[in-house]
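Loading example: each entry is read as two labelled lines plus one structure line.
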Amino acid sequence: MSQLIIAVVVGTALGILFQKGRFCFVHAFRDFFAFKDTRVTKGVIAAVALTMIFWSIAYYFGYYQGFWTPEWGLTGLIGGFIFGIGMTYAGGCASGTLYRAGQGYLHFWLVLASMGVGYAVFTVAFPTLQSTYFEPLTFGEGVTLFEASPIPAPVLAVLVVAAFVVVYATVLGREETKKRATSAADAASVTLVPAATLSGIRSLKDGTVEYLRGFREIDDWRAAAKRPWDPRTAALGITAVAVLWFTQVSIVGITGPESRWTAYILQTAGVDAEGYEYWGSVLFAGEGVSVTVDMVMIAFVIVGAFLAAFWSGDFRVRTPKLQRVPNAVAGGFLMGVGSRLAPGCNIGNIYSGIAELSVHSFIAAGGIIAGVYVMTHWMYRDVGCAI
Amino acid sequence: MSSTDWEDVVEMPDELDDETAESLADDADEFQDMKGEMCPYPQVEAKKALASLDSGDLLVQETDHVPSTENVPKAVEDDAEAKVWRSGDGLYRIFLHKR
């Protein structure tokens, strides 16, 4: 019972935060490749880094229910790539699709339905895929570095985040130096890594101060809350909610529970979903096809997004243009299939998976981002990409 | 172009009130109906349209997609200055003045 209440609270809160922060991973990576827009990318990075630190602390003190660590291998790269292609074509990732379904986009209800078709097709093909795809392409047991590393998890998390900040700041500092460089001599100084790192860290600090100052300049909080939020603000909220979920239930995932919803809906409609190995023995672990807490949680993401959109004046029943229907159908189908082949979606792998330092998710995240990169270049073929 | 620096402090485009938006819409040199469209098509179409307009011309996009109100202005920030009007019921207009 208490888990059910937590599922409702966490789902609703995530829906609100996804909607207000436009927490869409397609946006985060596609717009970075296409025209170097990093607003949403920063939100995603902030959410992953903060969640990593707080989950490591919760794990260290024993306040957790378990990790999600699929066996690792090339499946992550292949499934992730297919998922990345699909979500870029569909125009929304797993979290983006859910929040926009709540915001009234018929396009994304169609994406959801097409993902359901993808889950079902995968499930039917699963016995064959076991021997022809999963067995030859899986190399090792699932592992999280929190458990495998001799270093205490919180120390490891801080080290990983610190290492990332150094790399990020160096890239940032180099870009800035390059921009300022007017002569060949200046351009040569670009290669001075420590200087670039320092200037990058300085501008990271300035950016954070700027972000915090933004709150002080708000005189009408109600009006400000109705406008879109900085994705970094959403990231703070998402971290808080994800910590609650981690200590009480599990990591945050979307396509696993969605695939279970597909089984549940088909079972209700009279199909023997439980008889299929993937649903019966893998996803429901032999406990019968029923509504589980994580299914309740993701359903309430749609509810939360609806509430936030309605209150903000952004709710509207939106009918897609006819020429976008193939995007929803084909994109959604690829998302459904890809997320099962990996396994995991952008939330399971890029958000939760990297935050829990799961080896499988490092590979799958690489696959997803590569898929976005390729598809973005194809969609921007007429005007060209920045990266 | 230096202005596509990926670490620029990002400003949200200025918002227009109903009257200004109404009168400005009459001045549009090109109007694009982007209702029912998904990203990244509005970004791509805005870039293409601006390429064929003259400096000072106004391109108006009408859209029902919230993210477009931010990423269309960002995508064409080298080519155009952007202002946004929000209807309050899920419809938006993006005003792009070519530089």
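Chain A has one domain: 2-159+201-379.
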